[in-house]
Amino acid sequence: VFPATGYVEMAMASAAESAGAGPHVVEDFLVHQVLTLRGAEALSVQLILTPRAAGESSFQIFSLEEGNDTAWRLHASGKVRAAATADGDGRARVTEDVQALSARFGEPVPGELYYERLRGLGINYGPSFRGVVTLWRREGEALGMVRPPSELSFARNPSEFRAALLDTCLQVVGGSLPAGREAEELYLPVGFESARVWDELGSAGAVWSHATLRAHAAGAEAHTADLKIYDDDGRLLVEVNGLLLKRAPRAALLAGAELLDEWFYGVEWQRADAPRTGEAGAGLDRPEPGRWLVFDEGRGLGESLAQLLGSSGERCALVRPGDSFRRVSDGEWSIDPKEQEHYRLLLAECGGGGQPLRGVVHLWGMYGEGKEEGKAAASELDDAQELICGSALFLVKALAGLGRAEAPRLWLVTRGAQPVKEPHGWLSLRQSPLWGLGRVIAREHPEFWGGLVDLEGDGSGEEASWLAQTVGGGNGGEDQSALRGGERYVLRLKRRQPARKTDDAFALRGDATYLITGGLGGLGLTVAKWMYERGARHLVLLSRGEAPPSERAREVIEELQGAGTQVVIARADVGRAEQLARVLADVENSGWPLRGVIHAAGVVEDGTLLRQGWESFAGVLAPKVAGGRNLHELTRATPLDFFVLFSSVVSLAGPPGQGSYAAANAFLDALAHERRAQGLPAVCINWGPWAEVGMVAAATNGGRKEGARSSDAGEAITPASGVVLLEKVLMQKWAQVAVLPPGWLRLARSVSGGRASSLWAELAGETRPPRASGGTAAGRDLMRRLEASPVGKRRALVVEYLQAEIVSLLGLDPSKPPDARQGLFDLGLDSLMAIEFRTRLESTFKSPLPATLA
Ligand SMILES: NC(=O)c1ccc[n+]([C@@H]2O[C@H](COP(=O)([O-])OP(=O)(O)OC[C@H]3O[C@@H](n4cnc5c(N)ncnc54)[C@H](OP(=O)(O)O)[C@@H]3O)[C@@H](O)[C@H]2O)c1
To answer: Which tens digit of pLDDT belongs to each residue from 270-284?
Structure first.
């Protein structure tokens, strides 16, 4: 296997040749595909260095097998620049007392033992690469004394010598990985943020390599480390920051698998057994008859459902949208859907009378649904969202207000809103946001979550009884299901392997225009740069223009214009059809026809559903729902090469606090499928979080300047990998794909409090049980201790446990637990932490708790 350090050496050497002797810094380095050398097989390797801004070049390294003159394979990419400009923060070169450093560790391990273990994993280093003489290690940190390769001569071939010595130094990072699964698996360096050579490696005798992990989570798919290499006198020779190590199955290594290919996931509907039958209709498992509320869709389904529920002894009321709060007749209510208070009154009126309110079935998404909905005006779509999502939002608030642990189950039912079976005919786009919203309700309010159900597009006689069974408890633990052709389907996220392309490299056209909505945002600018690198020469970056472009935006635009690209900043709100139409008309008149669209406009507003009003919710929907639809309608007649919708994994995972954003993105998910069905190009990417640029980095950096390095490289997509992944997606025929960094699945499980939706069931085996779900050790022990204690001592134990949880959640000093009478929000608990807190308590006490607990 060609060492990663070999690429770095190539990049530095070519930079020295083109721009003068170093020192140089290599940045955003990424290994795309391992280069495996087999026996006498000859390969051509080519490095392409492209000058960018002053003193900086980007590079790509390809290989070509002998006898094949088209299938170039990309192995590595990055940037290289003169160190003087890169080191703008004026850090001086450091020295370290290496002897004192080694004394901080315990007993050293002879290097031979380390290589012995690697041999056990099937990795045999050649003699030039077996230079770790002694290794000191402890969790999260390792130090190695490394001897230079005696088989190689610096004088004869400095590049070869340096690459081998540097690679050996990188091996030391393996010693810092947590004990456990890591010990049995191979982790390969696949990239780094920056590497700088301070002094020539060949001048030193033995060198010291010191690796520090940024986070210690065991069992992770990826780890990030920082590495410093010193000479015997402790002078810093080389510094590598943000070294990303990824778990690499040996088989994949030998097959030359593309490392980023493992980041793709597909959302698939699969056939499942029918729900339990045998008992008539709903109310399965019920101890006594109860009441139901059906938010009727006015076309007969609600009435059939109510009848079926009634025939099995339940009492059922139909609720219809009207202009006032009114009891129309026995079992029939009318409410004004825009009045939050009406939902509360309704539950108060219908929840009493001795019979428990067992379930609420929301069919209001189906109002106005049908093949004609695509012809409705944009304003109608916005109004429809107020009825569809707004009613679900107000229902959630009213249900949470009941404050009961045994709250009625909420079911959201749509018709034809999911692409269950291909070809799926038409999709009801207007209902699709409910799917994103529902997934967030599931996570914020598991105490009353029932599930999401999608019925057949053109209706079927048995669906009412199927629905009655599903909402009555026969859903087999699935909270997302669909009915098609009388059969039941459930949703799963699965790994997706891209088809190998060995022919043409990806290229954009110099004689066409490409439109990026949200083009002045973090991802938009990154995509704009990438488009230029792939040959685009006319870009339109769309922005509402309420604030002046950021410093980064100005820099990027200047750089692109300086390189001869026409960049137009178009001021328009993508959600306003007339404004977008104006921009598109300008493009048409420019002489450079529109050939590709990237829809990256979006806003996010964090806040749990209980704290959301309709106005802020609608504000988040607008750029994606109205914006997506406008783009779709207004470019329908334009022959586009691609139409890319930037959605988020949030629409699938539904993390707490992102209800409106999940709903907005779920619309884009459906839009991509609908366009495909209409024979139009489209792909929707459910991106995981990006590092360094964009809205997630801005939020996690807590106001730090954009471009600050994120420390969670394994759990976020760096811009360098992001554009490579985008390019890979564009070379596939997918309608929708989730792109998730390796550490993300573990994270997803841990934030879901271990109660991940069945959507993740296929991948469950790949992730570790979440750490957070069980809360602290005190929590896991509590029930046993309570049982063993006299009644009088139990209260103190519970208080002590609650204090420990709060300390762990808020990161307080454990020696100073908060006063038991102090308000939790005064201590700094926010609404998202409150959900996590409640989830922990539920997991400890194995019992649902009301949403208003904290
Ligand atoms: N960053 C991530 O980690 C991540 C992850 C998953 C998905 N995404 C998605 O990727 C896209 C780009 O995200 P980002 O991180 O680059 O966010 P960003 O930096 O906030 O950029 C989004 C841009 O959208 C523009 N915008 C918002 N509403 C608009 C409207 N109605 N009309 C026209 N432009 C509008 C805003 O520009 P103006 O204020 O100038 O109009 C903003 O700069 C978003 O759709 C986001 O949902 C991002």
So the answer is: 998 776 544 334 444
